[in-house]
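Please check this one:

***
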Amino acid sequence: MGTRDHSRLNRLRGVSAWVLWAEALSLALAPGVAVLLAYAVLGLLGFGNGWLLVAALIASAVLLLWRLRRFRRPAAADIDRRIEAASHLPHRPFAALNDVPENDADAASDIWAAHQRQAAAALTSARLPVFTVQAAARDKFALRGLLLAGLLAGVVMAGAQAPQRIATAFTLPDWPLPGPHVTAWVTPPSYTGAPPHVLTKGEAVSTLVGSQLTVITDGPARAPHVRIGNDAVTTSTLSDTSHRADATITGSAVLTVGPWWHRLAHWNITAVPPAAPEVHVTEAGVAQGNVLKLRWHVADPYGLSQLTVSFKPVGYPQALTYNFELPAKTGDGKVLIDLTKSPFDGAPVALTLTARNVATMTGSDSPAQNFTLPGLNLHDATAAALVKLRRDIADDPASIAPAAATLERISQQPPSAIDPAADVQIAALGASIWLRNTDVSDVVARLLALALEIEAGPDFLPAQQFAASNQALLAALRAGLHGTPPGAATLQKLLKAMEAAAARHIGALQATAGQTGKPMNLSALDQLANKIAQDEAAGRTDQAAQELKMFQRILNALQNAKPMSAAEVAQSKAASAAAQAIADMTKAEAGLLDATHAGTATANAQGTIQNQLNATRQSLTKLGVDVPGLGPAGTAMQSAKSALGQGDEDSASTAEATAIKNLQNAAAALAKAARSQISLNPGEDGEDDDNGVPNEQSDPNFNPDRANPAAAIQQQIIQQDSKPAPAPTHQYYHKLLETAP
């Protein structure tokens, strides 16, 4: 056998020796490792602790030493036998190769040489033995299977807590001897408003992600190691024997202070992400026209930074989103949202209410119901064409480029007669789209402004000026509710500006309808504004607040006044005359009631008032107007007349009081019909709501304020006079009724 073959066999023997060494070492370590694995099962189940770990380590060390005492270095013969067994070589070729002959006879030498050549040839197929510990032979009771099953069950039961439980189980106990003092605390994020929490020894800590951790050690000259999980925390020196470490908690981990052999402290920290707001839409629906009624409830432990309701047409994922910012408050909320000017009229619209808290977490809720809005009630064909184009662009912003050609066609051939200035603006908007000098939101807004300007005609600017003057006047009066009422000079200046703007606004409306009318007398409105200021200055804020609500409703009636048809004008005049007649009849019936108590009332006096009531009802009926309360008032008057004729003053008094109440209800119904606003807090049927606005069950077929806003003022005063109030208040209303136009 050559030198090269001997070298190969020597390398094979060397590597095989390492295999036998590894097998022997594995057998020596197996009992100790089994003990540690059994302890790991206990740790996964939550039963691990530092001292139990020490016991497990001692047991493992004892078993290791016991097995190492029986450890023997693999002999050369053992290595050869293992190679022969792994290579399936019979007759021990290694032994034959190592043997020497007993004599040197020539014949024997030839035979011996042939024998060794045969052994060497057999060893050419020798190979490295495979590492094996023969677990089945050494573990007769299959305890290894039970151990693996326990590990698997522990991992499943621990779930996501498995890494943390293992880390806790294999953390050595605190050093039993006195050592440096450790103080640690966790400061929750500022948005919680919670104070810092000082950690106690062994405490399981649960805190929000983003909390600040502070560890201070007193005693050692050198700063101990501070780690959160696998990350080291940088420490700073406070003094020669005091050190500080600060870190931000970003996830669950084990906080350890000191080296593994001398743990000063350790805590299991569970990092909890901040909670998102809980948003629930409790009511959402179209209240009237394009006004949406929305109620919601938001719960959040930290406080809101933003609350937004978003609208989007159904079936258009790329459409513009119409957003409204709501008060960022938790709890219950309600609002009326006017979507008249939204670009989604005539199509189903979905809403989403989204809340964002101070922890930057968001939550949202979308009701299952969709809403279809009627949109703007436009009469001008050009304005309607612009609104349709606006809706198409809002639904599909990518269609903005072709819209330029549409605007050019409308500018060249408008569907209706429009002002030249509006024509120029349409052409300019189309050019801006061609030149890409504008974005989709700007185009949508400008199209709406153009449509409203064209629809309003000559009243466009006067209406805007009147709205601005109203806002300035109302703002000054509202400031008085908070202790700063406007001065006399300031109030008169604001009133004059409002009256001038109202005259221009009403004049433009009348000119558009081809109507003429005498200038309005708003002296009653001036007196009411001055009364509000006087009450505010005197500290009668509750009364001033009620008067301010009425004042605002009157201004809204003037702002929303529209030209009417001849039939509507007739209805309005009849309603105004009826309102005055009802006021007269109410006063007359009240006088009759006083006379009945004095014993001087007559049936003829009651008949005169009843005849006036019947005449008023007939005039209203001819024009198709039915005022609730007039019929019951007539019935009560008839009962009072009969009782007076029989001398039954008690029954007459009761019937007269009923007639007065029904007349007041009729006056309130007329005032309600003069307004078209809605409220989020509807009152009882036939009553105004908390804001003095008629409820949604009212559906009048006439609207007196559209032809004669001054008459609407009178209706408002009559309605207020019909409600319970202190005597001085009613005296003031009566004075207004006497001076109102």
